[in-house]
Design a protein that fits this description.
Layout (H helix, E strand, L loop, with lengths): L1 E6 L2 E5 L4 E5 L8 E4 L2 E5 L4 E2 L8 E11 L3 E7 L5 E7 L2 E11 L9 E2 L3 H10 L3 H9 L8 H7 L1
Parallel strand pairs: 4-11
Antiparallel strand pairs: 1-2, 1-5, 3-10, 4-7, 5-6, 7-10, 8-9
């Protein structure tokens, strides 16, 4: 049995036991996560989603957070400007091992959903305590001194 899942803007064809290098997700090493965006489940009776398969999931165990190989970008401007710039970048990745493919019953499994770090930051920001939000709104804004009042005193 195999499944096609979508995470980090990419699609992966996986089976139980596969090790994947995916975009960074908000999970620590040793955590169990569940991918809920399943596009297709294959096997004896393939199931295609429209666009997702309802109730299907892929469960995986996080092995480690790693960095990809360095990608170097080089820009050179010719003729009169003659400037150049070199920059390097290493993408952060998460290494996961697929443990199970669920064709149905994903919502009852009790395993937390794998979400990217950006989505985790947005969710944490939106779920901040109400008291902290009220304090930010209640803080009085400082106003600049009026120029007319200073001019009339002279």
């Amino acid at each position: 049995m195999f499944a096609v899942l979508k995470t980090g803007g990419k699609q992966y064809k996986v089976q139980a036991g596969d090790v994947l290098r995916i975009e960074l997700i908000a999970a620590a090493a040793g955590d169990k996560v569940q991918f809920n965006e399943i596009l297709m489940i294959g096997g004896d009776t393939p199931v295609l989603g429209a666009p997702m398969v309802k109730g299907a999931a892929v469960q995986a165990e996080v092995i480690d957070d790693i960095k990809a190989d360095k990608v170097i970008t080089y820009h050179k401007r010719r003729r009169k400007h003659s400037s150049q710039r070199t920059r390097g970048h290493r993408q952060k990745l998460t290494l996961v091992r697929v443990t199970d493919i669920l064709a149905s019953g994903a919502d009852k499994s009790g395993v937390k959903e794998a979400i990217g770090t950006h989505a985790a930051r947005v969710a944490a920001h939106n779920n901040a305590p109400a008291e902290a939000k009220a304090e930010k709104k209640a803080a009085p804004a400082k106003k600049a001194p009026a120029k007319k009042a200073a001019a009339t005193k002279e």
